[in-house]
Automatic annotation (TrEMBL):
SUPFAM superfamilies xrefs: ARM repeat (SSF48371)
Gene Ontology MF terms: cytoskeletal anchor activity
SMART domains linked: ARM
Any coiled-coil regions, as ranges: none
An individual GO BP term: apical protein localization
This protein's GO CC annotations: apical cortex
Protein name (record): INSC spindle orientation adaptor protein
Amino acid sequence: WYSVMQTLQVDSVQRWMEDLRHMTEVECMCVLQAKPIGVEEDSQQGELIIGSGLGAGDHVARNNLQILLRRALVVSTELGKMFQRLEKGRWQRVHSTAVRANCHVRSLVHEYSAARSTPPEMQKYETSLLEKCMELTNITERCLHTDDEYFLKSMREAIHEILTDVSDSFSNMIDMALANEIRVCTAVLIKQIESSDNVHIIGSAISNLLSLTQDGPQLCSIIAKEGAIVALFKICRQDRFKELYAHALRTVASICCVEEGINQLDKVDGILCLADILTDENSVEAARAEAAAVVAQITSPHHTSTQHLASFLESMHDIVTSLIKLCESASCGEVFLLASAALANITFFDSMACEILLQLNAIHILLQACKDKQRVDTPYSKDQVVTILANLSVLEQCATEVLQEQGTERLLLLLGEKPTSPSPSEGAACERVQQKAAVTLARLSRDPDVAQTAIQLKAVPRLIELCRSPTERNNSDSVLVACLAALRRLAAGCPDSIEPADHQQLIKPRLVDSFLLCSNMEESFV
């Protein structure tokens, strides 16, 4: 839940003004605790003037979640202050912070219990938390009335232990409360999606559901279990809601970052629906792109479960055909990225996909796309292209097509891929591009014609440079290993292409010895 709360800290001034109502003095809070919150008579559906309470009802379901997060942020801030002040031995402030934290926790528990029926498993955390907060308040008060250093030192250790327990209990309670709120919010939104015929109402509900999925895998799992995937695919199977397909599929892709989402998709034959959208010539590009995003998500190598792939294989030919067509016709880089990412993942788990792609002239389409800045405009897109080429290169007939399309030249250009910004993710993408380009070159160089072409295009000096210069490969060990392998493959076919000194250090020793030599090189060695 901590990562969820970080998203609240966008506009500092606005957040401060909204949180003022939670940051009241303890004395005032105690007086106001029992006071009712006023409601304007003409306000729509009795909307609260001051949204500081955890209200009940559909119209405040999402507000409850935000209020819970803000309250949790206040408490976690106070607990963080306590840890800092305890280390510095500021006992007066430690006690006052403990009193404030105790008050905020009790207020949160009281308001949440009043708004929702608290689950039994959450009640035990509430009881334990309230007891520990009171214990924390009492023990810190004892430290105000003594100057005995030995006593204070022992108390510091005891308080630190209790404070750690309080923090853990609070985190567990908030996790459960958040899960409960997400269930309520999701149920409300799914009901709107399933029961309404109004495109705008359904679209708004899908938008809110999508925003919930951005708060982490744990929430996505809850959303999937509540039946969101089922509701969204019902939308995607009705022609009257075609304008909502892209929006619904984007939400499906977000939910499918967890196994539960993929399992739900498989149960409702979601793959058949995706295939229908991808192959429908009347589907708008945005819908097909988002369908490709779902395919990329469910075929990701990071997923441990592969049960859903059995039904995927039945539609694979149609899906692969549609995806390579989408790569060819993509109007922008984002669409190309989604389609190529899906293809890259598919080529990992079934060799038949590689054969289908070769039959569909995929090498020509992908290499032509690399020349089009409108489609392939980032290292991320190039990463997908070179991944597909690397997986296709295990097939013997691939080498001939690569030569025909001047693919060797493209691979050498990809070996020179460098980040244009200090972004770590972009740097990592460039490393993957270099590594996979070297792997593809090594595989294709089994063909003497490819090896000869690569040597003529001065692939050897570039590979040697990547091996010897850590900065050229962004200090990446995986790039180094791939380049050493490619270099050795070229040297095996044409020994004269390697200088004696390079041969002695990069080719003759065992691969591991050459790797250790290059990975420990200083830049001045070049």
